[in-house]
Amino acid sequence: LTLTIGRNCLVVYPTIEWEKFEDKMVEDDAENEDESTAIRQIYDYLDALSMDKQGRILIPEKFRAYAGLVDECVILGIYNRIEIWSKSAWDSKVKDVEIDFSKLGKQFNHLRF
Q1: Which residues are CB-neighbours of 60 under 8 A, at least 6 positions away?
Q2: pLDDT tens, residue by residue, 58-93
Q3: Which of 22, 45, 76, 96 is the most buried (most CB within 10 A)?
Q4: Is residue 81 helix, strand or coil?
Q5: 11 closest CA partner among 95, 111, 85
């Protein structure tokens, strides 16, 4: 597993998915200084994780501090990754959000929300 940072959260990728993500970053190449800085920060916050015999991972302090993980957290499985949010950051993100699924694109039509 590969751990890095996202927008106000931590992101865990299976190693194979991280390698695909890396390949995409190399392919796209940073076009401006902001992108280059973001890529540097992603690599500064990059760690290989291993699970213990019970399937748990230990999140290093540097990462916990970045994401504000103090007590409760929210763990989301999204496509090919897992996002780990502090509960307060997640609550702020989704506060007052109402999704009108009828206005979403065709990719949601088959889900019948």
Answers
A1: 3, 47
A2: 999 999 999 999 999 999 999 899 999 999 999 988
A3: 45
A4: strand
A5: 85
Is 34 within 8 Å of 104 (Cβ atoms)? no
SS3 of 38, please?
helix
Question: If you search the block for the tokens 């299976």, which residue do you land on?
Answer: 14
**18 versus 110: which is more confidently predicted?**
18
Task: Compute φ and ψ for 58, nearest 5 degrees.
Answer: -105, 120
pTM of the model: 0.75
Place of tokens 């959260």: 9
- Beta-carbon contacts of residue 78 (< 8 Å; ≥ 6 apart): none
Report DSSP state, residue 7: S
Phi, psi (deg, nearest 5) at residue 95: -60, 130
> Distances in Å between the alpha carbon of 112 and those of 8, 68, 76, 102, 109?
30, 35, 21, 9, 6
